[in-house]
Amino acid sequence: MHHVASRHAVLTKQARMALSISAALCVWCSEASASGPLPGGGKFVAGTGSIAIGANQVNITQSSARGIIDWNSFSIGQGNTVNVDNGSGATLSRVTGSGKSMIDGSLKSTGSFYLVNPQGVVIGKNGVVTTGGRFVASALDTGNDAFMAGGDLSFSGTGTGTVVNLGKISSTGGDVFLISRTLVENDGSIGAPKGSAELAAGDTVLIHDSSAAPQTYVQAASHGDAVNKGSIAAAQIALQAADGNVFALAGHDNALRATGTATRDGHVWLVAPKGTAHVHTSVFAKNADGSGGTVDTAGSALHLDDADIHAAQWNLSAPLFNIGPSTAATLLKQLNQGTSIALDATLGDIVLEQTMRWSGDASLSANAYLSVTVGPMATLGNAGTGNLTLRADASGVDNGGSVTNRGTIDWSKSTGAVAALYDMTGKWTPGTIRSNAAWSAAPFSGLKTQVTAYRLVNSFDNLSKVQNDMGGNYALGRDIDGTDLGVVSDVLGQSSRTAFTGQFDGQGHTITCLLLGDGSGDDAYVGMFWTIGASGVVRNLNLTNTVAMSYNSYVGSVAGINDGLISNVHNTGNVWSYVNYMGGGGIAGINNGTIQRASDSGSIGGIGGIAGSNTGTIVQSWFSGDASGGSHAHPGGIAGTNSGLIKQSYATGSAGATFGSGGLANDNSGTIEESFSTVSVSTDSRRVPPGRLRRTTRAPSITMSSGTCRPAVTRVSDPARRCRMRKD
């Protein structure tokens, strides 16, 4: 099933729609030009104020912060003016009569102005609306109490009126929202440089303040359409239809332009979850600092002819993608002009059937709910710094998704990287791959190879399977939360005494409540990995509410001993080594390799905020927790003992023990450069370890900052062995 329709079908739909809209607007325009009206029959039903009606203007003065006026009619003829002095407050004008609102004159408001008319609202070609705050024109109604209270507003009703702008709407300090069940259309211009400009069609529409998502949420279906044929310039822009269609139809000169603010990214949303999203226009999205913004396009089907996207990122979402010649040409155009593209198939596969070769730094991601296939006649290639990501099982649900390359992946002229991610029970078929012999990893990326295939880890069960192949490549497919699982996690490689020599990429995801070690003293090393070998890499991972503990082992949240590379890994939680205090570190018990851009903000019952002992390199890393070694340790903010290199790192927080402590390292025979510490150090003989392990018949209960980790037993294989951690 293809979800990209032909250009003929698109134009046919557009033509039918344009004719129907034009015919209706001609009637409205003739009515407006003949009438020359002013609003009539207005009275305050909430709040306080006055209404003064003159020959060609109405002056509304509102003395309360918020007010509601009911009108028999609200239209403004050409040459007429309505002035609303509501300070920085808000006024809701509701039409209770049977006529639509025709704005062919001027509507001015110092604050926010809401115009509600179930019969519809039309700003004519000569109409000008200017507000200091938010402007809302809606054919759906909202409650008086909710409006007077402020906050979120829900608009609903059975009104069939349309909301159309043929003129000019501008908000100097707020948002512009046009809302209807049937049709919302902009044929004129809308400006909201400090806010959002949003067109929303649905039975129920919620307005909720947000800077990271559209502020209008279409909650119920009405088969209504949201259409832009004019120009919109705002910090953020959204066109949304619940089960109708979204049409972005303007020509090149009448584009959608999102420019962002200091608190809002430049973002454009074109969303029709159960309808079709049509993009046949230029869309510009940039942030206030001049960097590229984001465009999101989503629908049950996508029509992308003549799309011209100028942004850092274009995200496309549909049930599935079969990328044929027309869509491939559209995508290739955007890639070549520097816009990265992500294809997200929400229900099925992604099939890349056509060749796409591009230059520059734009990247392509294909994220399929099921599987990704590169067709036999297709070549995907980049000559520049662009990356390629082919991901199966994009939702991380263990559905057996595979990545199959039947064509060619040519990165021989690129310095970018290629990643293929497939389900733990899926397959990777590499096909023909051409890599760049001169490729080298970008600084601090942690990459070992230009082209890498990863098995996805979506659960603690998946994580335990890593020890079946300690030389494999793995990536977290989603966040993993073990708060209520009730079992202690395996120390990977411990039972076989095998070091991890592959790659583990967290992809920025988080593992919560990783419980490691049982305090028995039987474990040589305790960490997520028993040992990371010289060729092993762990990167881009967040660990929260970690508990790693042992009586006399080398303990770290990531590794007991690291001989390889740990990059961009961040831990919060607790690491305790109770007898051999020289072996406790926030990231690694002992570091003989490299730890870069890592951090720890937990409690270290050992001696090092990052590593207990460092003979390797720690660079651009930091510690902000409590390294308290107690009566047997000499803790340091970065490392207890350092005979290697600590560079461009810092430590805050505290470090204390009976026999002394150090801000960066308590015992240093190596090199420390370009680093600083504000650690509060202590040699108070009364100081005790932050935690004490006691044997008991009760199950562990370790209360952390964001949840309670409750393992039922410390080892599944030994249910009689139980322990409890307590902070004294």
Overview of the structural elements:
By secondary structure, the protein is mainly beta. The protein has four helices and 75 strands. The model is unreliable at 1-35, 657-661, 683-708 and 710-728 (pLDDT under 50).
Break the fold down into its secondary structure elements and pairings.
Blueprint: H1 7-35, E1 43-46, E2 49-53, E3 57-62, E4 66-71, E5 81-85, E6 90-95, E7 101-103, E8 106-109, E9 112-116, E10 121-123, E11 128-131, E12 135-138, H2 144-149, E13 153-156, E14 163-165, E15 168-171, E16 176-180, E17 183-186, E18 189-201, E19 204-207, E20 216-220, E21 225-228, E22 231-241, E23 246-248, E24 256-258, E25 267-279, E26 282-285, E27 294-303, E28 308-310, E29 313-318, E30 321-323, H3 325-336, E31 340-345, E32 350-352, E33 356-360, E34 364-368, E35 372-374, E36 379-384, E37 388-391, E38 403-405, E39 408-410, E40 418-422, E41 428-429, E42 432-434, E43 451-457, H4 460-464, E44 473-476, E45 480-481, E46 503-505, E47 510-512, E48 515-516, E49 525-526, E50 529-532, E51 537-550, E52 554-556, E53 559-562, E54 565-577, E55 584-585, E56 588-591, E57 594-596, E58 599-600, E59 603-605, E60 611-614, E61 617-619, E62 622-623, E63 626-630, E64 639-642, E65 645-647, E66 650-651, E67 654-657, E68 665-668, E69 671-673, E70 676-677, E71 680-682, E72 692-695, E73 702-704, E74 707-709, E75 723-726
Parallel strand pairs: 3-5, 4-6, 5-8, 6-9, 7-10, 8-11, 9-12, 10-14, 11-15, 12-16, 14-17, 15-18, 16-18, 17-21, 18-22, 21-23, 22-24, 22-25, 23-25, 24-26, 25-27, 26-28, 27-29, 29-31, 30-32, 31-34, 32-35, 33-36, 34-37, 35-38, 36-39, 37-40, 38-41, 39-42, 40-43, 43-44, 44-46, 45-47, 46-51, 47-51, ...
Antiparallel strand pairs: 1-4, 2-3, 13-19, 19-20, 72-75, 73-74
